[in-house]
Automatic annotation (TrEMBL):
<keyword id="KW-0732">Signal</keyword>
<keyword id="KW-0472">Membrane</keyword>
<keyword id="KW-1003">Cell membrane</keyword>
<dbReference type="Pfam" id="PF03783">
    <property type="entry name" value="CsgG"/>
</dbReference>
<protein>
    <submittedName>
        <fullName>Curli production assembly/transport component CsgG</fullName>
    </submittedName>
</protein>
<keyword id="KW-0449">Lipoprotein</keyword>
<dbReference type="InterPro" id="IPR005534">
    <property type="entry name" value="Curli_assmbl/transp-comp_CsgG"/>
</dbReference>
<feature type="compositionally biased region" description="Low complexity">
    <location>
        <begin position="310"/>
        <end position="323"/>
    </location>
</feature>
<keyword id="KW-0564">Palmitate</keyword>
<feature type="signal peptide">
    <location>
        <begin position="1"/>
        <end position="19"/>
    </location>
</feature>
<feature type="region of interest" description="Disordered">
    <location>
        <begin position="310"/>
        <end position="354"/>
    </location>
</feature>
<feature type="compositionally biased region" description="Polar residues">
    <location>
        <begin position="332"/>
        <end position="341"/>
    </location>
</feature>
<dbReference type="GO" id="GO:0030288">
    <property type="term" value="C:outer membrane-bounded periplasmic space"/>
</dbReference>
Length: 354
């Protein structure tokens, strides 16, 4: 009787497990719809930064992955990268989020070839169809440029920095827990366009945690028959989210570091001093802050944020002359020899789109 009961229990458990997995696989599209990435605490801290004294125009070219790390897999070789290759997009988004968009005017140079190619097409079309050797600035205006270049990279990815686990089993019932810790490191720099001087730089690391919990039980239902049931769950922190949070932290730290050395400044001086003090305390931790660290040397480049806008030179106007009156024969007057004299139509004006 007991044997039959155990067999039925094992059969029911197997059916429930298979049905649950099948239901989860069949209903994946409705259970996990796409959604906008929610604001993390790190992103909120970046957004809530106090406003600057004046908005800063910066250029971003790229934020490459310099780690050379590939994703680890068992038994097979994988050519997939360990961290996201979209660092440029993460950096431009973080710069736009700083202070709710009040801190930076971001000039995206990550796809500069596409931008220049499109402007070349516009210039060539106007040369072919309008005879313009020099493009009209109202149709192809000068590109904006910045006084500061923001550049960075993912410079480190260390796997299995810490690993551990724990397990126990008693009378065939038990469980175990395993975990590991990886670390991704992001570097960010502000460089003066006019001199090439490095104005400020920061490095930020973000731990990436992975955990696995498993449990199981086994028992003999007959002398030579063993019933074993196992269950478990694993949780891996998304590496893309870790790189995003590290980039946002780096942007926030770079803003504070730039204010500390005088590259730019906050509109509220008290808020600036408070943020600088908190940044120093986080950097040195429990170590006493040296006196030299409280008065950092300023860069040699002054007014690095100042940008002189490019204004097109006014093109000379053609010499004025009396309009030429053409003799146009209308169909209604061709038979009687009369003519219709009207001035030629004015030249077509540039079309303004949008």
């Amino acid at each position: 009787m007991i044997t039959k009961t155990l067999r039925r229990a094992a059969l029911v458990a197997s059916v429930v497990a298979v049905a649950g997995c099948s239901e989860m696989l069949d209903d994946t599209s409705s259970k996990y719809p796409p959604k906008v990435i929610p604001v993390t605490q790190q992103n909120l801290d970046l957004r809530l930064l106090p406003a600057p004294k004046s908005r800063v125009t910066v250029s971003v070219y790229d934020m490459p992955d310099l780690t050379g790390q590939f994703r680890e897999r068992e038994n097979v070789q994988s050519l997939s990268r360990a961290v996201s290759q979209g660092g440029g997009a993460l950096l431009t988004t973080a710069l736009q989020d700083a202070g709710q968009g009040r801190w930076f005017t971001v000039l995206d140079r990550t796809n500069l070839d596409n931008l220049l190619r499109e402007r070349q097409i516009a210039t060539e079309m106007r040369r072919l169809y309008r005879g313009e050797d020099t493009p009209n600035p109202s149709a192809v205006p000068p590109l904006r440029h910045s006084g500061i270049i923001i550049q960075g990279a993912v410079v480190g990815y260390d796997a299995n920095v810490q690993t551990g686990g724990f397990g126990a089993r008693y009378l065939g019932i038990g469980g175990d827990t395993q975990w590991k810790l990886d670390i991704v490191t992001v570097a960010l720099q502000a460089v003066a366009m006019s001199t090439g001087e490095l104005l400020a730089s920061v490095m930020v690391e973000k731990p990436i945690a992975s955990t696995s919990v498993r449990g199981g039980t086994f028992t003999f239902i007959e002398l030579d028959k063993l019933l074993e049931i196992e269950t478990g769950v694993a949780a891996n922190e998304p590496k893309q989210l870790a790189v995003q949070m590290a980039t946002e932290k780096a942007v926030r730290s770079l803003i504070i570091k730039g204010a500390e050395v005088g590259v730019w400044s906050f509109a509220d001086h008290r808020a600036q001093q408070s943020l600088i003090a908190a940044h120093r305390a986080e950097k040195y931790g429990e170590t006493q802050i040296p006196e030299a660290a409280k008065a950092l040397a300023r860069p040699d480049t002054r007014n690095a944020t100042h940008v002189v806008a490019t204004r097109p030179v006014a093109r000379p106007r053609p010499a004025s002359s009396a309009p030429v009156r053409e003799r146009i024969m209308s169909p209604a007057t061709e038979s009687d020899g009369q003519s219709d004299t009207r001035p030629p139509p004015p030249p077509a004006e540039d079309e303004v789109i949008g």
